[in-house]
Amino acid sequence: MNSITFGLWPLAGVTTVGVTADDADATMTAIIDGGLTAFDTAFSYGYDGESDQLLGRFIGNDRDRFSVTGKVGQRWSADHKRIVDGSAATLCADAETSLKRIGIEQFDVLMLHSPDPNVEIEKSAETMGELLHRGLTKRVGVCNVDAEQLRRFSGAVACTAVQCPLNLLQRDSLDDFIPEAMKLGCEVHVFWALMKGLLAGKISRDHQFAEGDSRPGYEVFQGAARQHAHDVIDQMKLIAESTGKTIAQLSIGWAASQPGVSSALVGARRPEQAQEIAATTRLSPDVLAALDALI
After folding, report:
1. Which domain holds residue 139?
2. CA–CA dist 121, 217 (Å, integer)
3. Reported pTM
4. Is 93 exposed, middle or buried (0-12, 13-18, 19+ CB in 10 A)?
5. What is one GO cellular-component annotation here (predicted)?
6. Cα–Cα distance between 290 and 43 in angstroms, integer?
7. Number of other CB atoms surrounding residue 143 within 10 Å
């Protein structure tokens, strides 16, 4: 299915426990061998640019075969605290650094990673426009914004792509954000289709996460919300058995099939997960209706 973008965040080594360099290389090999050609990285994916560097090793001299989305506007402090910085100096410097790390001259899409509360979003948008004018990217986009912020950003630069969360359990973006993005002429790329692995169906109700794993901090992994998620997953297992698909493939296929969605942005930590993602195919209307009926 060509409506899948592979995100390198899980391979960047920031919040993922137990992923080795060999795991990352094997996962990337499986994704490319599986036919996926669209990749998503960011300046802040890795404390020292691990995501960009990994992508660069696999793109090599075959740049024209791949689509690369980058993101700028987030950094890490010396003690590994996330910093949001939408200033012109940071956006320009980090775009240039990411391109050098990857070993390419131009992004297909460059996004503002998130709005800086200390910088008017229009100012950040204008800087992104400067990067577009300089030829560092073919197109400009934004993520982690609401509908009003998207309107303001789009009023200051030609914004053609957005990223937002969407999965079977979290559908709010279908109500207002995605319709607004469509109205503004933006491609919509959705993340969290697998909800950090929960909607892959491979995390048990009583699973204990390793120390340092970031997932227990998300509401969907806590208390009643987590139990509700597992109730839904139990029903998805029946649909998976009847269709010959995996739960992960159902989750990805559902997200990628929603109105206005251009691609589902999905990550993996292991080659077998990558193979499963790459083998995802479109879902029939009957299967989509059955999944919708679960919520």
Report:
1. 4-197+256-283
2. 28
3. 0.94
4. middle
5. cytosol
6. 39
7. 23
